[in-house]
Amino acid sequence: xxxxxxxxxxxxxxxxxxxxxxxxxxxxxxxxxxxxxxxxxxxxxxxxxxxxxxxxxxxxxxxxxxxxxxxxxxxxxxxxxxxxxxxxxxxxxxxxxxxxxxxxxxxxxxxxxxxxxxxxxxxxxxxxxxxxxxxxxxxxxxxxxxxxxxxxxxxxxxxxxxxxxxxxxxxxxxxxxxxxxxxxxxxxxxxxxxxxxxxxxxxxxxxxxxxxxxxxxxxxxxxxxxxxxxxxxxxxxxxxxxxxxxxxxxxxxxxxxxxxxxxxxxxxxxxxxxxxxxxxxxxxxxxxxxxxxxxxxxxxxxxxxxxxxxxxxxxxxxxxxxxxxxxxxxxxxxxxxxxxxxxxxxxxxxxxxxxxxxxxxxxxxxxxxxxxxx
Length: 374
Prior knowledge:
Helix content is 51%, strand content 17%. It has 15 helices and nine strands. Strands 1, 2, 3, 4, 5, 6, 7, 8 and 9 form a nine-stranded mixed beta sheet that branches. The chain has helices spanning 18-25, 43-50, 65-80, 102-111, 179-190, 192-202, 205-218, 221-232, 241-255, 259-272, 277-290, 294-306, 321-336, 340-351, 357-373, and strands spanning 5-11, 29-36, 54-57, 85-89, 93-97, 116-123, 133-144, 163-173, 319-320. The longest helix is centred in the last third of the chain and has 17 residues, at 357-373. By secondary structure, it is α/β, with parallel strands linked by helices.
């Protein structure tokens, strides 16, 4: 198969996952890989097995951070490649679906004069079997030559470029594979000084969202809410940011027990993107359960289970987390109303997704309730 795009990949200590990515695209992509000088495993040797285009970079010494080193690799790739389309890929990702239709997709994007492709990302926990819960979102992973990245942290392609949405292209993602990655991500999300630098530099929705999330995680809910609200006053320059901000609003209002405001935030999120419908229905059910309105909670949790799959390319890829949580929500509401058999049946379904402390706690309550009922 002829090469259809050039993949630009930054790597550091990725020997466990890099082959999976490269195997998924080697037949359709030219490979351009830059290995961090801090890498200590066999990442560079593996890269050389797949391509002659292997370079090095030093992220720690780059004033422009991620954008600088990624742009450096992009420039080298454009010098060496005659292709028009490029892909921004991380070593813990791999192309899962849609490869067979790439030629048609690129041709359509050219016809529409689009400079980027928004594809469906699916975050699957490391080592998970098919059918486990996962998160899904859209991201611009394919783009035409000449574009450059911005932001020292959370690098992004330029905003305002005309992009096409192609959910048939599915990229699997495993962000938290190793302890060092988990620690780095956690540190980044809680580094308020760095996040505020991003805000002053970019002053956009996504920067406000990251700050709101950081304050929400630290327990300063009122400040978090101010950032979410500030973000919602800005133009949407990054796809999905408005929906994220409304989701942040919901979480904050729920923590503050402002249930009417939580419901309004959920409806606003649903209006932003109908694909969020399942998660929004679960949020409405959870608010009703918080207020002990168990009939309403049951209605919304059943709505989650009745809603069709909204992402056609994801059949057999994952079970949406709202489905798991809706089953637990139904178990909880039936338990509160003394309907133990129904509670047991829905809890059993939720438990199939994996063990959770709240599931074990409810299971213990049901066992005790059965004993007391004789």
